[in-house]
């Protein structure tokens, strides 16, 4: 069973993406195919596809990258804020078993701020899938959050119409204090997240649109970079390996 080959159509169906998207992923090296037959048709090891689906990063990323997507699996999907808060409390409880409670509270606060921002700033304006994907991997010490919302640029353009791209918007969100009137609080919330990351042994990867930043402890500068693939909404990972 581990060595069973499946067609590109079956592999794409398991991943919840189109065949064209899977071809692009194969060409980019994100997944690996086996060519067979005189026409060189692509086949995939079923075990490789299943392993890909077990990685929370990969699941979240291909969900936000997809041009069309379905609701995530129930154990990751938080359609409402109440569901998110309940699962966030479960995460904090589990993390507190392996890390000091004060540090577990900080990681939870950062994840909570990011998740609540998604609900606050997409209220009534979700483009397709309502709610967020929220999951964590205690073995690899990371938290993953993603949404298919409007993204930071569209959010901040309501009050900063001069913003022209996701690079500018991301930098503003993490560096500038903006008044507390809706919808401007996204900037203040992410500035709070930044303070948690740089003051503690944590890492943060945050992508919105076609721009991303990476932060770690003691980082004083915000270095926004251009991503190879644009996404819907936001994709975030918080790493806490060095916390333990």
UniProtKB/TrEMBL annotation:
Q: Which superkingdom is the protein from?
A: Bacteria
SUPFAM superfamilies xref list:
Putative DNA-binding domain
A single GO BP annotation from the record? regulation of DNA-templated transcription
Give this protein's Gene Ontology molecular function annotations: DNA binding
Coiled-coil intervals in this record?
A: none
What are the residue boundaries of the HTH merR-type domain, all occurrences included? 5-50
Q: How is this protein named in the record?
A: HTH merR-type domain-containing protein
């Amino acid at each position: 069973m581990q060595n069973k080959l499946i067609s590109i159509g079956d592999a794409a169906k398991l991943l919840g993406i189109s065949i064209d998207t899977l071809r692009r992923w194969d060409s980019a090296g994100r997944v690996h195919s086996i060519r067979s037959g005189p026409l060189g048709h692509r086949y995939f090891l079923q075990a490789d596809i299943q392993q890909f689906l077990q990685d929370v990063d990969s699941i979240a990323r291909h969900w936000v990258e997809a041009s069309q997507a379905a609701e995530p699996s129930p154990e990751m999907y938080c359609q409402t804020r109440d569901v998110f808060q309940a699962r966030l409390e479960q995460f904090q409880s589990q993390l507190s078993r392996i890390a000091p409670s004060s540090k577990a509270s900080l990681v939870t606060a950062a994840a909570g701020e990011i998740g609540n921002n998604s609900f606050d700033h997409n209220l009534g304006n979700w483009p397709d899938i309502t709610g967020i994907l929220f999951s964590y991997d205690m073995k690899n010490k990371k938290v993953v959050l993603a949404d298919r919302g409007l993204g930071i640029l569209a959010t901040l353009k309501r009050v900063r119409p001069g913003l022209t791209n996701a690079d500018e918007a991301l930098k503003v969100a993490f560096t500038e204090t903006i008044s507390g009137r809706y919808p401007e609080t996204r900037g203040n919330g992410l500035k709070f997240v930044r303070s948690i990351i740089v003051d503690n042994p944590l890492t943060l990867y945050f992508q919105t649109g076609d721009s991303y930043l990476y932060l770690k402890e003691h980082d004083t500068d915000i270095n926004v970079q251009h991503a190879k693939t644009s996404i819907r909404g936001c994709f975030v990972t918080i790493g806490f390996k060095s916390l333990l």
